[in-house]
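From the shared-data thread, chain only:
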Amino acid sequence: MRWFHLTLVLIILSLVVCTCKQQNLWEENSFSQCDSDKDSSCDSQPRKQTHWLSEGLKEPPACNFVPEERIDCVPEANPTPETCRHRDCCWDFHVFSPTSTDNLGRVRSGPPPCFYPPNHQHYKVKNVTKMPWGVQAVLRRTRDSGYPQDVSLLAMDIVHISKDTLRIKIYDAREDRYEVPIIDIPDVKMTPQVRDYEIQIQNDPISFKIIRNTTGNVLIDTSAGPLIFSNQYLQISTRLPSTFLYGLGEHRDHFLRRSDWKIYTLFNRGERPTDDPTMNMYGSHPFYLMLENDGNSHGVFLLNSNAMDVAVQPAPTLTYRVTGGIFDFFFFLGPTPDDVIQQYTNVIGRPFLPPYWTLGFHLSRFGYMTSEKVRTVWKRTRKAGIPYDTHWTDIDYMLDFKDFTYDRERYKGLPDLVNDLHEAGMYYVLNFSPALHVTDSTGEYPAYDEALGMDIFIRDINKKNLLGKLWPNVTAYLDFSNPKASEFWINNMITFHEKVPYDAAWIDMNEPYNFINGSWESCPMGHPLETPPYQPGNDTLATHTLCMSSHQYLSSHYNLHNIYSVIEAKTTYKALEILGKRPFILSRASFPGLGRYSGHWSGDIYSRWDYLSSSVPDLLAFNIFGVPFMGADICGFFENVTEDLCIRWIEVGAFYPFCRNHNDEDSQDQDPVVMGEKVIEIYKSLLTIRYFLLPYLYTLFYNSHTRGQPVVRPLLFDFPTDGAVLHEDRQFLWGKALMIIPVLEKDTDVVEVYFPRATWYDYYTGMKVVTTGRKLLLDAPLGKINLAVRGGNIIPAQEVAQTTKLSRNNPFHLLVALSEDGEADGDLYWDDGECQDPIEKETYNLIRFTAKRQSIMTSVIMKGYMTTMDISTVWIYGVMEAPSRVMINSFPAIYQYDTETKLLKIVLKDVSLLHDNLLEWM
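Structure, as tokens:
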């Protein structure tokens, strides 16, 4: 019986082999290498290629890839067997199921039917040279990619920046190409012999691996797919060591990026948010943080500002598809998430130190329409006693929406209003747009006349000023890459400040946005920059922005589009510096490096529950992007907000680093007073907590500015080996000490919270959380947000007043949360809140707090700001036994002890933080 079965199997196999030969399901033609180093006409010569086609029951061995590992060979259009064959790739009819297509008709999810066979070679190493900073290899092309103008000869620089930071730069070895001009790469240091990583290069086909020395983890492996480098299409793939991928923004998605065939487009886009979580939004951040399976972390940054797609698939594998420039990669070895972000911001620039007042509550809307309406809202908010520092005005303050003007009829009292706010210890922010209204007659709009005479607008392909539509109608866009445009912008901001003494600048619509596509005259049809061989995103690149072929001082808009906002922010920063202020800027569009000059808000979101929920992962993402001053419009921007939604929004919004209520002209007023007494009292309660904790928040920004640490942190930063937090993007941390637990759904008065294994205390009572390592249900009535303090931390705080200017005169407090072994530490950074460069000038104070062995020491680390810093109250969580006495600097102190909560409260008098102090309980 066994022989019968074996004979039957052999007969079937012979029939299958015979059938496959007769049907000729795949064919192999001769392939001749083109030595492009010797033959300059190589790119244009037709050449024979090897073609693979599989459409039957059996595939050639080279095409036997599991679907999850297949790298798309024809990503730019719906593939056919013919287009697949032309690129010498594998075709599988069985997986072709176009379940999701974009606006251009392309399949955007699922395994590709056309995919590269393994070891699909496009380049091989020609020679390698050791350099003082590392190694340089020259790569020779061996195959056509299927995209126009393949680059024949590449250089690959492997630069050892430090023991934990590696740079790999791949570029045209013969001709200069566009490179991002706005990042100041740190100097290469003399690298020690021992590094945290090893790099391995494979020659044929060219690929490289980066391996962590301490664990042997392979962090990068580019053998997953071929290296492609043509004029307008660059591609490289890597295997990922895990599926715990974070970053790649800006998208309204979960903090943990999806690996189920998701494509994340990185191209600044000014459209309203959509329900598509992978739709590109206002910013482009080609950086990701990867958490490895053992809890270590690394980061990857591609310094490239061209439009790109990043495809992530289940293998897990990641593929970059870039429309220009070069590959300029930075790899950060961590090994902690904190280390990765510090290493990343060391390259792109540390975040700016905000003025202290910007940490207060801000109120704004689009559509006040008159200065009297602004004054009414300001006065009623002040009268209600709500903590409140800053008022904003959107573009409706302008005369016909023209920059550097204000409407002297509707806003005739604007300068007086701003002065009145200043007298009340408050601040005022104005909106500025990057485009100027085009006029027909000289003298109608002096700023436009001046800019026209200076020739500083972006130009179209015919060297004429490109005309689009923004505010109010026909507009011309300033070319901030032109030094003369920076001079114009700075001078006009200074001149306008003499008329309206604003305190900060809000730069909006700076993707740049255009109400029409490209220009009034349309973009040149068929131009390669308008119709690249690969189109990232769901829309053509010029949709609601400028023609890609338009010209700027440094390069084409095709190259500079994504960095437009950063150059504008840098210029605006200089203007505010000249005005003598510590600059504060808020920008809608973003790119790596923006955080050096500006904060960001999540743009024109809707007053809906899902937008409240998505604001938290958005906040977490921008903190790893090096833009920690970030928040969403509290209560939403579009549509009328309900009372319950607005209350839940201020609960979490009180803990956004940027805390602003703002909505649009077509919605009802949503400032807290107009919504009634219930909302007023909840605003007061929540903002009182925020203002109480501002010294701690300010210290977090100091740590961000000096060391690159995120201000808002996901739980995985502190608990990277706890699998329960790796998907968590609803709870978040301020620094390491305070966990914020918001309610993000409607119609509930409880919240599910996960407490990682640590010591935690209820912020309000000091009661220790007994159960950790699993989820709990906490009561969360409307108007209350649950907060937990992590043991081992000391939080500085301050007595609250209605404005930060007043509260800064009040005494300080300390919240001391003891660890299980009775220890804790913390810091307080303090300066005058407004001076420029306090760190460099050493005009600040830095106080260190240390708790151990039933004592707390306050130590002065830096004393450069002469002020009063008295401390009046210390709350200590986790004192297990009632003390018999408490001493401050050897003198008795007044105290209270709660036997149920184990909270010790100590009241101090005439104790200054500008001197070392010793507090003891026994």
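The chain is about 20% helix and 25% strand.
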